[in-house]
Amino acid sequence: MIATALVFALGALVASFVALIFAPVLWSNAQRLARREFEASIPTDVREMRGEIDAARARAAFELRSDAMRHRAAREAAARERAEAGRVILENGQLLARQADLDRQIADSAGRTEHLESQIQLLVTERDALLAARQDLRTRLERRDGELATLSAKHQALSEGFDQQRFRLATAEARAEDMAVALRAQAPGRSPPPSPAKETVERPRGDLRALAATAPTLAGDPQDGLASPTGNTRLRAAIALGGAGKPSTASADHAEIRERIGDIAARVIHERIKVEGPESRLARIIADAPPPADAGEPLLADRVRRLQADETPVTAAPAKPGGAGRARRKSRR
Predict the structure, then answer these.
(1) N or C: which terminal CB in the chain sees fewer CB atoms within 10 Å?
(2) Alpha-carbon span 239 to 265, nearest angstrom
C-alpha cells in the first residue's frame, strides 16, 4: 500500500517536472501570436485608417438603425398594449354595467321569489285549512252516516216491533172472538148481580201510551181475566182509558191500533155485561159515561153502547143452541 502511494507521488513529480520544462516554450509562443494579432489589427497607413473609420461609422449606423427599429417596435408594442388596455378597460366597464344590471335583476328576482314564497306560504296555510275543513266535513259525514245507520237500525227495530204488535193485536182480537163465543156458550142463565156500589164516573183521561199499555192485559187469556177477582178493575180501567182524548198528531198506524184495542175492550166489556145481567155495575158505568165532545173517533163507552144496540134486535129472534142464530159484528181491520 505504501508502494502504491510512492508510485502515485513519483508520477505527480514527473508530471510537474515535464510541465516546468515545456511552460516557457508555450508562453513565448503565446506572446508571439498575441503580438502578431495586435499588429494585424492596428492600421499602418491612411487607407486602412479610413477603412477602419468607415467600418466604425457603418457599425454605428447599423447599431443606430437597429436601435431605431427596436424603439419603433417598442412604441408599436406600447401602442398595442395601450389599445389593448383601453379595450380591456372598455370591456371592464361593460362588464361592470352588465354586473350592475344583473345585480338589479337578481334583486328583482329575489323580491319576486320572496313574494312567491309568501304566496306559497299563504296557499299552504289555506290548503291546510281546507284539508282541516275537509277532514272535519268527512268526520261529520261519517258521524252522520253512523247516526243514519243507527236511525235506520232503530227504524227497522221499530218496524219489526210494530209488526209484532200488530200480530199480537190480531191474535188478541181472535182470542177475544173465541172468548166471546165461549162466554155465550157457557152462560145458561144470569148470575146474581153483585152488591151495588157508588163510584165516580169521572176518571182522568189517559194518553195513547196508557191506552197501549192496556193492550197486553186485554190480549191475555180471556178465561183467566174473567176468573180473576180483579177483572172488573181491569175493565173499569179500560173504560176510563177508552174515554181518553186522541192526540191530533197521531198517525194512521196508531189510529188502527187504537181502533183494534177499542173493539177488543168493547167486546170484552159487552160480554161481561151480558154475563152479569141487567144490573151489572159495568152497565151503569157505561150508561153514566158522557157522550163524545166531537164527531171524531168513538169512545169505549160508545163502542159498548153500539154493541148493545146491535145486540138488541138480534136477541128477539129465537137463538139456536150454541149461539148460532146471533149475528157477529165484524172487526175493523
Answers:
(1) N
(2) 8
pLDDT at 251: 53
Cell of residue 191, nine digits: 148470575
- Report the distance separating Cα 299 and Cα 302, nearest Å: 5
Distance CA 308, CA 36 (A): 191
How far is it, in rounded angstroms, from Cα 181 to Cα 208? 29
Q: Do 285 and 201 contact (CB within 8 A), yes or no?
A: yes
Half-sphere exposure of 228 (CA within 13 A, CB side): 13
Task: Give CA torsion, residues 21, 22, 25, 31, to 10 deg.
Answer: -120
- CA 231 centroid distance within chain: 62
Q: What percent of the chain has pLDDT over 90?
A: 27
Interacting residues of 291 by C-beta distance below 8 A, sequence separation 6+: 302
What pLDDT, on the 0 to 100 scale, is given for residue 314?
43
Give yes or no for a contact between 266 and 303, defined as CB atoms under 8 angstroms apart. yes
Instruction: Please state, as a whole number, how many other Cβ atoms lie within 10 Å of the Cβ of residue 78.
Output: 11
For residues 211, 215, 221, 223, the Cα torsion angle rounded to the nearest 10 degrees is 20
d(CA 112, CA 109): 5
Grid coordinates belonging to 171 = 191474535
Q: Are 222 and 179 in contact (CB under 8 A)?
A: yes
DSSP string, 21-82: HHHHHHHHHHHHHHHHHHHHHS--SHHHHHHHHHHHHHHHHHHHHHHHHHHHHHHHHHHHHH
Q: What is the predicted pLDDT for the residue at 130?
A: 94
